[in-house]
Design brief:
The complex is a heterodimer of chains A (113) and B (115). Chain A is 0% helix and 53% strand. Chain A is mainly β. The chains are: A mainly beta (113), B mainly beta (115).
Chain lengths: 113, 115
């Protein structure tokens, strides 16, 4: 039962262009969403989060959009840089649920110089 | 404080042996989580501590698995009678409060290989 889905296993983007990573979820009880970035041999690193009461949150080059009716969120990175090449995980949580995270399977982003 | 520390980084063990992993969270963090990640998958929740109390265990955590967090500081995860299916990356994370705004801080993980 995959409650958080990232349907694109990989994505290649030219340096300087926009990278858009997508995530869908099925559990309507999720009310907080987070994006993590992972380099090989390291643990995931937190990037940005969004509460279900918002539809957009920005932090520098990173913007997360949430469409609750579609149960869809996306992470926009602009401009994309070579250091952004990593695996990106979408995660969801339910308040009052011990804040445990349910992760998607990840999207490998490659930035082409 | 340099973040969440996990030891060992790698462990190779024979099937049937017991293994124990250690996690040292960020000192002021009261919440500690264990996750497991297998190839091609995202991390999966195993268990959660608030201070020294273990408040939730996943169904993934069979009776061969046990976790402790004595005195609400470091935590250990023990796997008894290891099986090849236990081969995975075991990740520890900690947070102060819910972790929603700042996210959890993950360690680099312990990679277990059961042969």
């Amino acid at each position: 039962d995959q409650q958080v889905k990232q349907n694109s296993p990989s994505l290649s983007v030219q340096e300087g262009r926009i990278s858009i990573l997508n995530c869908d979820y099925t559990n309507s009880m999720f009310d907080y969403f987070l994006w993590y970035k992972k380099y090989p041999a390291e643990g995931p690193t937190f990037l940005i989060s969004i509460s279900s009461i918002k539809d957009k949150n920005e932090d520098g080059r990173f913007t997360v959009f949430l469409n609750k009716s579609a149960k869809h969120l996306s992470l926009h990175i602009v401009p994309s840089q070579p250091g952004d090449s990593a695996v990106y995980f979408c995660a969801a949580s339910q308040r009052g649920g011990n804040e445990k995270l349910t992760f998607g399977t990840g999207t490998r982003l490659t930035i082409i110089p | 404080d340099t973040g969440v520390s996990q030891n060992p980084r790698h462990k190779i063990t024979k099937r049937g042996q017991n293994v124990t992993f250690r996690c040292d969270p960020i000192s002021e963090h009261n919440r500690l989580y264990w996750y497991r990640q297998t190839l091609g998958q995202g991390p999966e929740f195993l268990t959660y501590f608030q201070n020294e109390a273990q408040l939730e265990k996943s169904r993934l955590l069979s009776d061969r698995f046990s976790a402790e967090r004595p005195k609400g500081s470091f935590s250990t995860l023990e796997i008894q009678r290891t099986e090849q299916g236990d081969s995975a990356m075991y990740l520890c994370a900690s947070s102060l409060g819910s972790g929603y705004e700042e996210g959890y801080t993950f360690g680099s993980g312990t990679r277990l290989t059961v042969v």
